[in-house]
Amino acid sequence: MAYQVLARKCRPQDFSSLIGQEPIVTALRNALTEARIAQAYLFSGIRGVGKTSAARVLAKALNCETGPSADPCNDCQICREITTGADLDVIEVDAATYSKVEQVRELTESLRYGPARDRYKVVILDEVHRLSRQAFDALLKIIEEPPPHLVFIFATTEIEAVPATILSRCQEFNFRRVPTAVLAEHLRRISETEEINASDAALRLIARAGEGSVRDSVALLDQMATFGAGTITDDDAVRLLGGLDLALFHDLLAAMLAGDSGAVVTLVRQVETEGRDPRHVHTQFLGYCRDGLHLALGGDAGSSELPEEDAARLAVLCRGAGYENLLRLTHQLLASEPAVRRSEAGILALEIAWLRAAELPKLTRVEELLAGAAVSSRPPQPAPAPPARSAPPPRSQPRQEDRPAKVAEPDPPPAPAPRHSSEPPPPDPSDPGPGDPLAPPVAATPQLGGADALQRFLDAVTTKKQPLGVRLRAALDLRFEDGALSVEVPRGDTSLAKALERDTNLRVLEDALAAVWGAGSAWRIHEVDAPAASAEETTDDEPAVDAETAGDPRVQTVLDIFGGKVVDPR
Q: From 258's CA, which of 152, 361, 373, 505 has a CA 20 to 30 Å away?
């Protein structure tokens, strides 16, 4: 007797053998049991998930001598003839070769007559989306109002190509992809029946390569059993399934997470040397990364579709790298998939996609930048002081739980003009001199209100909020005394006070205050008369300007930001 391939030999003959489609099986069984038979059914789904097999089983269940029943007996003459395709009352038509409107009209004319022997005349129209528009129109009337003995069963892999007028006259059943674990168990049963020696790891690889299609998976099992003379080894499964090399994938993922571009190039050359399809390898690697995502989230390695040992190694790698890093990596690889799939230079597109993914660990995360992390290892440099003025004492941003300084205080007595001379103040006779043995060491910790503390405060503010730091540096005077930071601004200048009304600026100010002078440090704003520029501050290169222009806080802010100077306001 001629050999029959496993895909035909193991075809489901009853609803119990239809794997992975339990909701559809339940609905059809209930319809048969309660005699709620529709005039038309539409089965849709990918290839090889049981659409045509379910249609034949339904035809047998409708016409079985013991039926209609939830399952056909497969022993009576009607069931056997439907199985072999010899029943005259069950018409199976391939719409791909029966698509013309004249052929459909001939079919509909013959359907007006009752069945020759069976209880129902069943028409199975496979790949119905291949019918022409006129052929669909010719079916509309008989589908909507068929004779009582007629049942249509349509099957299609492209339900979007079926007109809505046909869909509205049918009961739709969407056949889903069969899960890999269910497919592997089904292949195990077939292997035991056909005396095929195959490990669980090999069967999982076959089921995964089938991509949810039962027919494709069984055909792969048949092919590999023929190759190995009834024995399927793990090495044969890896080689025949197009290079699902888990060791290569593990090394590649580890190199990407470590940013090792050299190792990535070596692995790309290995893929090229072995002659593997770069598109297929990239698709399989995406699936491997997806398993890693699940494991990084805390999934059980035993529930993975990978072999137990490989799943355990992948879990250790991915949990050490972190879920967020692995998510960014997988997203980058997925975005590169169309380029790899469509490129004529597939191996080059694959290499570029993998090298770009290996650059991700070298980048600075946006979250870190928003949090104020430095982009480089060098400490942030303070903004340059205006060239025409001596730099005021460094300024800092204070933190405070309450806001006593939002409202300007009453005018204090006129404050002396800030010192612009580079000469140090005269020494206090009571202070010990530098040669005095009682003098403190030079490297002693600066005072709370000293220049170092103010500079650290200004640097902290500028790092997180540069515009606010520039405004504070532009203040007339900045000093910390009596547990509070005092900021002197020109009279009428409310720009700083308005800026601190925003919660983000206020939070930056208070965080910097707490970091330099401790929690609970206060701050206040004083409005004072701006001092007029002295004659010795004016040079030939920098003409004197009127007081109104020089004291404008907006002008000074721009000068501080860009390191400029006022040449001539006229």
A: 373
Long-range Cβ pairs for the range 415-421 (8 Å, 24+): 415/477, 415/488, 415/528, 417/531, 418/392, 418/476, 418/477, 418/531, 419/390, 420/389, 420/390, 420/534, 420/537, 421/390
Distance, in Å, from the CA atom of 37 to the CA atom of 55, rounded to the nearest integer, reads 13
Residue 218: per-residue pLDDT: 93
Q: What is the pTM of this model?
A: 0.56
Q: Give the residue from 304, 365, 361 showing the smallest Cα distance to 329.
A: 361
Other C-beta atoms closer than 10 Å to the C-beta of 122 total 26
Which letter does DSSP use for residue 486 in this model?
A: E
204-255: pLDDT as tens digits: 888 888 888 999 999 999 988 888 888 888 777 777 775 457 788 889 999 9
Torsion of CA 541, 543, 548, 551, to 10 degrees: 30
Residue 386 and residue 564: Cα distance in Å, rounded? Answer: 7
Q: Could you tell me the CA-to-CA distances from 383 to 34, 196, 336, 387, 554 in Å, in that order?
A: 84, 77, 42, 12, 17
Map out the domains of the chain with their CATH numbers: 6-175 (3.40.50.300), 180-240 (1.10.8.60), 246-362 (1.20.272.10), 451-562 (3.30.300)
